[in-house]
Amino acid sequence: MDVIINNAGRGVIGLQETFTPEDWQNLFNVNVFGVQRINRAILPHLRKNGSGLIIHLSSLLGRLAIPFYGPYNASKWALEALAENYRVELSGLGIDSCLVEPGGYPTSFIDALMKPSDHSRDIELGDMVKAPQGFLEGFEQALAGNPAQNPQDVADAIVNLIETPAGTRPMRTVVDKMGMGEPIIKYNEQLAGITAGIYGAFGIDGMLKLKQ
Predict the structure, then answer these.
(1) pLDDT-based confidence at residue 107 (cuts at 50, 70, 90)
(2) Which pTM was predicted?
(3) CATH of residue 95
(4) Angle at the Cα of 33 (from 109 to 175), degrees rounded to 5?
(5) Structural domain that includes position 53
(6) Looking at CB atoms within 10 Å, which of 11, 13, 86, 199 has the fewest?
(7) What is the C-alpha to C-alpha distance for residues 111 and 118, in angstroms, rounded to an integer?
């Protein structure tokens, strides 16, 4: 085994306030803690082999926050940090940690979105309670009007990462054709430069160089 794809994940839709701590725990158990369990289980084997690739399926919402997806946003931000730390801590071992950041796609993921379990505040929140569903319906209409947003693109991006020579794979791969991708690519590029500067200031910039 030389490639691990952390693809398991679940989304949410609802007002952030109405998700209980238990809701958050359930989501993080899949989107973050499950990834850590898998990585810890496989890393001894990859380290023994002296090579390997760990791909983390994130989201464009791991780079910015959008209303009504609060717990999901937070879980993907956590996943981004987890993957980036593995990137530098494994950089000298021949093991690449990479992120794939897709936009929204017309898949069963949308049908399985978790909703908040606390409805005790619905009356107090008034019409705002209806806003998440309205936002989701608008997003689904946007997907339906953009057939170029094909889930196969995400699979192709994963294959491309696997086929790219070790030590040359990018940290982040954005996959999107709905207009969100380009600004996120620019943001990623700017952040990479900032990160390099900070690492240099701490004298650990060598950890950004992957073993080839």
Answers:
(1) confident
(2) 0.94
(3) 3.40.50.720
(4) 40
(5) 3-208
(6) 199
(7) 20
Active site residues: 72
Q: Which two tokens stand for residue 38?
A: 């898998």
The single-letter DSSP state of residue 66 is: -
Mean pLDDT over all residues of the chain? 96
Token pair of 118, please?
Answer: 């606390």
* Alpha carbon distances (Å) from 66 to 59, 123, 135, 185: 12, 24, 11, 17
Helices 34-49 and 70-89 meet at what angle, rounded to 10?
20
H/E run at residue 170:
none
Element (H, E) at 6: strand 3-6
What's the rounded mean pLDDT across residues 109-135? 94
Total domains, the chain: 1
| Helix (H) or strand (E) segment spanning residue 118 | none
96-108 average pLDDT score: 94
